[in-house]
What we know:
Its cofactor is thiamine diphosphate. Residues 469-643 form the Transketolase-like pyrimidine-binding domain. E1 component of the 2-oxoglutarate dehydrogenase (OGDH) complex which catalyzes the decarboxylation of 2-oxoglutarate, the first step in the conversion of 2-oxoglutarate to succinyl-CoA and CO(2). This is 3-methyl-2-oxobutanoate dehydrogenase (2-methylpropanoyl-transferring). The chain is of the alpha/beta class. It has 25 helices and 22 strands. The strands form 5 sheets. Strands 11-10-12-13-15-14-20 form a 7-stranded mixed beta sheet, sandwiched between helices. A 6-stranded parallel beta sheet has the order 2-1-3-4-8-7, with helices on both faces. Strands 17-19-18-21-22 form a 5-stranded mixed beta sheet, sandwiched between helices. Helix 5 (149-164) packs across helix 17 (525-536) and helix 12 packs antiparallel against helix 13. The model has no long low-confidence stretch (mean pLDDT 95).
Amino acid sequence: MKANPEVNKDLSFEDFKAEVLNDYHLAVTSRECSLLGRREVLSGKAKFGIFGDGKEVPQLAMAKAFKNGDFRSGYYRDQTFMMAIGKLNIEQFFAGLYANTDLKEEPMSAGRQMGGHFSTQSLDEHGNWKNLLEQKNSSSDISPTAGQMPRLLGLAQASKIYRHVKGIDTTNFSNEGNEVAWGTIGNASTSEGLFFETINAAGVLQVPMVMSVWDDEYGISVHAKHQTTKENISEILKGFQRENDEKGYEILRVIGWDYPALIETYQKASKIAREEHVPVLIHVQELTQPQGHSTSGSHERYKNEERLAWEVERDCNSKLREWIIANGIATDEDLSSVEKTIKKQVRDGKKAAWTAFTQPLKNEKIELVALLEKVAAASSNKVFIEKLKNDLADNSEPIRKDILSTARKALRYVVNETSETKNELAAWINSYIAEVQPKYSSHLYSHSDKSALKVQEVKPTYDDSSEEVDARLVIRDNFDAIFSKYPEALIFGEDAGHIGDVNQGLEGMQEKYGELRVSDVGIREATILGQGIGMAMRGLRPIAEIQYLDYILYALQIMSDDLASLHYRTKGRQKAPVIIRTRGHRLEGIWHSGSQMGGVIHLIRGIHVLVPRNMTKAAGFYNTLLEGDEPALIVECLNGYRLKEKMPTNIGEFKTPLGVVETIREGNDITLVSYGSTLRVIEQAAKELQEVGINAEIIDVQSLLPFDLNHDIVKSVAKTNRLMVIDEDVPGGASAYILNEVLNTQNAYKHLDSKPETLTAKAHRPAYGTDGDYFSKPSVEDVFEAVYNVMHESNPSDFPKLR
Length: 803
């Protein structure tokens, strides 16, 4: 069941009645799901509930204006909208509440997100794009408030790119840029910086975005007077209203229970955004929240009797019911009959969803109980194993934790026994984990044939005419080749356009490819990334430039909460292969120090993190990623643009592989591992170490995520028997991550004759200036002395103590 997506002014009265009653049916169905959903949480069947009650009628109006090809980027109140566009039914609603891991039963996230977080599937089971023009689309929701805003900007900007940039294959993605991106947010969350940053950016870019603010005057227990100046978001955004020839927003206000006015408002907003590419803000006022914020508390704690009575009076479903009766569309008896029928449908749907969720678990329980009976019969600890078996058998509604925990505990009782049943139990546990674990862990990265890990290395080639040039020219000419080869590729960032970026790596690109493909943007890192996410979700290949690595922190929440988890939280059914370009390493000053790698790599699992030591390696990574389908962060060496590199003859074609290290200096006394600009320091130190008889092997990590997939570092350690990780990050940062990978994943500890060492920057940010760098981050002398001390410990006669 779904709302009619078009409003036909020529409807007969009978057709009009049918459409209104269908809308009422949807509104009541959604409300009953919310009411019953709360009870399921309070009964313990579901873990947590957050519902869309009180917002039903405006969502029906939005659904009528929402067309195939459009995208939603909303928040966890939009269940009615999803039902109205035909992407959520009763069973799926409850499957999400129960966290069913079957994607067929729970198509939003296969149980990986709590209920109320919605999405549609942009990809098939093989990771290939579906035809997004033949369906209504919803980008996958996230819980962090206002976190949906940055990607909304990109979803809208994609329509502008598709409308105005020639040569892009728009099949599956756009009909001449006529698609609208629809955003939703609660009134309290408009206080977040991400909301204001996005609103400003959309006004500057003039993109087809319709932003709905569901206003129920509260943010959990906090009233709007503590949230918003003048208690009114549209009032304080008046300055964004377009006037005469001044570009801006169309700002509309509407009462959230006024059904005809809502439909008219949303049709108007759709027309403006779709045809004119002007952003629209719709402030939907006088909404309610009948059950409070979530199942974690009751709104009676913070709303007085007067307010609660006001909410009952203005409940949008009740108001729609009154309007239907007043206009002779149906009688009270008619609607009562409909409501009774819906209650039964929701109860039946809930039961069906619960059965679908629990039956596989019951089957797994039965299988283990039978096995434990055999194990107990053959064991001297029969009484203990039977206790475990009986407890599990008595559990009428087990979860997988109960099942696996029981099996693992039973295995302990037979650990000292020799029997076929013991082996069978151990095999069952291993098989169960192998089958079940992916239900919760798969698809952090691409499983498709387009995975960046499957792109084969192509080395740069040179001939006698290859010149030594400033390295920036290598990256520049490679971007030129990329923009020529991929019409859907574009880049944007602070200073990226007119001046060709601060290091001239994009020199002349805007003049050649136009302002829409090589663009300057304002100082607003979170929405720069958001532009990339949204456009990548609609088939474009954006490169979002964050000027310096330190500024990544402004976008880190979106990288971590949205981009890094997108493929995972949709179980491989959405992707955003955006490339994030930035610069770092050996910078000067507290806020230009490039020392956040430890935090970055731990917060953005799901995004590849690549740290090339020069521009040729960096260019190769761009070429690799554009053949793949995954997001990545590339950190170029800021102090490398003016260094000399040979210009490859196969510019645009060579590819640097992900997860592959490179040995850049052979040696047999110690293995030195690092990345980025620090390698130049290490190379100089290695030359000086050679002068005192120490022959160091140097390995360039190149790729932190993924890390050394071929386990080449342990091969080096097996030869040298010593290991040192050198990093400009703080102690315990990326160096600790690298050491863990080498020692624990690759088991290099087996080959060590000396304690593995790390040499890092100081715990503080680097002070300004050359001396600040010298006394803050590893220097040539630091590396020399640290390596020398390792050799002194093992051979003090040949290497007497330095100091």
